[in-house]
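Worked example 2:
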Amino acid sequence: MSKESSHRVAVIVDAGSNPFELGVATELFGLRRPELDREWYELVLCTSEPAIAMHNGFFTLTGVGGLEQVDDADTVIVPNRPDPEVPPSPAVLDAVRRAAARGARLVSFCTGAFTLAAAGVLDGRRATTHWRWAELFSTMYPDVLLQPDVLFVDDGNILTAAGSAAALDLGLHLIRRDHGAEVANAVSRRLVYTAHRDGGQRQFIDQPLPPVADTSLAPLLSWIQERLAAPLTIAEIATQAAMSQATLHRRFQSELGTTPLAWLTAERVALACRLLEAGEIRLDAVARNCGLGTATNLRIQLRRRTGLTPSDYRRRFALKL
């Protein structure tokens, strides 16, 4: 996204919508961020009725625009469903279909995937929803390629997040897609929120977890981040943590929802992104300095996580000094 352009985000609020997801969208895309020195998003809220009661009647939303605001939005965030078996209003479904037909980016948080599926825009597409509703979703919408145990799914112009907290992960992912890793990291720091969770990490599903020590992994993560360029092995990390490799894997899964290797690779790719944004043009130097080893591996890992080649990423996000 260029500094001169403004990306319009329309958030549809329907009867019973969860205020948390509305707050996530407002925080990420609605607040001004002058410290970033760039054009930010233009956020609008829209409803099908003049007054919409939020989930459990916590409050009633009034004074926002109608669904016609969806028709010129670049990104449309659809409403989640308090009862997934009850479809959204016909007016909301029509607005979502119109947005899909003109190629707008569609986003759902938590049970919002039911809204997208009810609108008929998810058939044959990858998506996720909260683990609690995954079985019901698959029963109701068998033509959707549901991925029930990930935090979020990026399927091009349709993106779905698994739960309320995963909405933050998906929102930061969108900012990373639009503005680059450095800006996304700056926003996550403002939120005092981790930038480590990517979409492929598992949801924290209600199931027994092995016992773990009370101490946090934070000191170990900092130690690793200071040595990303080094040829670290899982055995060396386990030795530094004074635990077996099996225990290390259990700790990472329980505290971060991912494996040590996946977390390490994600951190290295994030560092590679920052180096590319800073203007480093030698791919072998980037690969060496972030610990990915070779330019070939850098290309593979970067494309896997951003969908872009190193040269495309640099062209899109390199800092203009």
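DSSP finds 13 helices and eleven strands in the chain. Residues 3 and 134 are 39 Å apart (CA to CA).
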